Amino acid sequence: MLNGQNTIYFATIRKLTSAFGALFNNIYIARYSGTGGTGTKQQAIKVPLFYGPSQKYFRVLEDDKRRGKTKVRQVFPRMSFELTSFNYDSSRKLTTMGQTLAVNPTDPSTFFRQYNPVPYDFVYELNIGTKNTDDGLQIIEQILPYFGQSFNLPLNDIPELGIIKDIPVILTGVSKEDDWQGSSEDTRVLTWTLTFTVIGYIYPTFT
């Protein structure tokens, strides 16, 4: 039974989200002397990453443009990621009364008892905003090779019990949108959306 005074919070979803974002936190694009990725490499630019829906950021950006505060080319490329949904996965259901036991580090004569976790699929979107096609392709080509089948993300779910799992991250879709709003180069935004399913678990309390 649920008990409001017996709070269950292992920060599992928070850990999962942070670990997912960390996968894309060290991506760079290069600037070349020629066009289309040709010539001498002149500059490497780290692509900023933040959490939140891309639509919200683009809306703020458009407001700033109308006020004359910024220009699109000054803030792109840029990436954002967001947890969009999660769903119970009955195909991975474990025995409800199954347990994991671990020695209590403060009292070796006693044990912690953890019931089996509940399987959930977490859906994340990674949004990539660029001013030109080549920037987008540079970013995409640094991500796609790692997700041919799935990528296993190690996650320290419950340190108190030594529960560490390899969480599969599966790329399920890639789409592109060209937000062309006129002849000015300052109004164009290319958006790539990558959708991922993360095969995770949520844990009940332990005793």
Q: Briefly note the structural class of the backbone.
A: alpha+beta
What fraction strand?
35-45%
Distance between the termini: 14 Å
Average pLDDT confidence is: 81
- Note the run of SSEs as H and E: HEEEHEEEEHEEE
Kindly provide the radius of gyration, computed on alpha-carbon positions and rounded to a whole number of angstroms.
Answer: 22 Å
Low-confidence stretches: none
Describe the structure in your own words:
With 207 residues, the protein is an alpha+beta fold. 17% of the residues lie in helices and 44% in strands. The chain has three helices and ten strands, in the order H-E-E-E-H-E-E-E-E-H-E-E-E. The chain has helices at 12-22, 54-66, 133-143, and strands spanning 28-32, 41-46, 49-51, 78-88, 99-104, 107-115, 118-130, 151-158, 163-179, 189-202. The strands form three sheets. The protein has a six-stranded mixed beta sheet. Strands 1-2 form a two-stranded antiparallel ribbon. A hairpin with an 8-residue loop joins strand 1 and strand 2. The longest helix is centred in the N-terminal third of the chain and has 13 residues, at 54-66.
